[in-house]
Amino acid sequence: MRILTPRTLLGHQYQIVRLIGSGGMSAVYEAIDTRDGHHVAIKHNGLPQIRGAFAREAQVLTGLCHPALPQIERYLTVDDEQLLVMQFIPGDDLEQRMAAGHAGLPINYVLTWADQLLDALIYLHSRRPQIIHRDIKPCNLKLSEQGSVVLLDIGIARDRRKYTPGISHPYAAPEELQGRVGAASDLYSLGATLYHLLAGLPPIDAHTRAELLAARQPDPLRPLHELVPQLLISVSSTVHAALALAPDARPGSAQLLQQMLRQAQYGTMPQLSVASVPVQRRWWSRLQS
Fold first, then answer.
1. How many angstroms separate the CA atoms of 196 and 208, rounded?
2. Residues 189, 107: one domain?
3. Which domain holds residue 55?
4. Which residues have CB under 8 Å from 202's CB, separation 6+?
5. Do you find a cis peptide bond into 220, omega within 30 degrees of 0?
6. 1 falls in which pLDDT band (50, 70, 90)?
């Protein structure tokens, strides 16, 4: 894959500023739109073998419109290279903000962002075909100038029927280890992200937890309210419900998890039947077989 250098001009319009990040199949750059000087993010693909997949993905993403998702400006092809031009969100991501402060972030802020993110997941999961983000984590979250959260890297989203594994520990749901993904996987990743934002450290990864449970050891995941004493137990238990190892034991939808978190903030214990440890063990054994 060709790496674009600063000051490279694409389509006689977009001048590259810097590389933001790259994967095996594409890269994202900050660039300047020379027509009016505003900054954009450009997802770039120069690999012919994924042209069709990139075009299909661009078609899906250009149809999205939600305040917690970056706006897509346009999709174009220049000299056999594909460009997806989208809104650029400046500043540090939430992982960088935590690293600078060496602690969790304020509870009221995190719960406000959680509500906004769940609203975005309700939107994505209700699309047809359904869109699963499958890479929710603090470094993919930034704040807009108004202070609201924006979920980045939506470009790696896939129709769940065409999912290919891409694991991000410790935010990945255990079923992703087997290449299985669904709306419940996003809820696990969001739960792990909220845990990290509140506690200042990520949760123990799902694979380690599942292996210990299968060996009849206790779940090593510490209750969130033990790490953040000022956090309501009802909020802590709701986040832990999203971190259930068995997908069926998590809240049934992003909408339900949003309702539970809203209720939990007022001290109302959420009503959710969480699978017992033996049930979790049996589920992990079936998944491994």
1. 17
2. yes
3. 9-87
4. 170, 171, 192, 195, 196
5. no
6. low
